[in-house]
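Anyone able to model this chain together with zinc ion?
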Amino acid sequence: MQTSGSRLIDAVPPTWSRPRPSEVDRLLEYLPMGWKVVVQPEAKMGGLWGACWWFPLQEIWLCARDPDAMKASLVHEIGHARLPPGEGHSPGWAALCRLIWREVLGEDRPGFVENVGCHVGW
Ligand SMILES: [Zn+2]
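re: yes, here you go
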């Protein structure tokens, strides 16, 4: 015997359900509290693909370019933002990036290490 609650759920067409979160949404779940991501034009980035600004901005800047490259830079910069300033491209940073990469983008996708055009501010 069905309850009225389950009949209601059965009546909801599948197209009403929330779409799965995108890779970008899932990457942003790793962004530390209080931080934001700003997409900047190439001219403002001066040849960099990403930048991480701790104090006082707490901002990650990404250069506007192709989406897969921007996702790679986002992983790279979130790795910086989650660690103390001065950590740089340390083995700990690389391990954290690898973990986020594997969780969201999958094991087989080419790596974040190609995206080292970055500035780590303070
Ligand atoms: Zn970096």
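The chain has one domain: 20-106.
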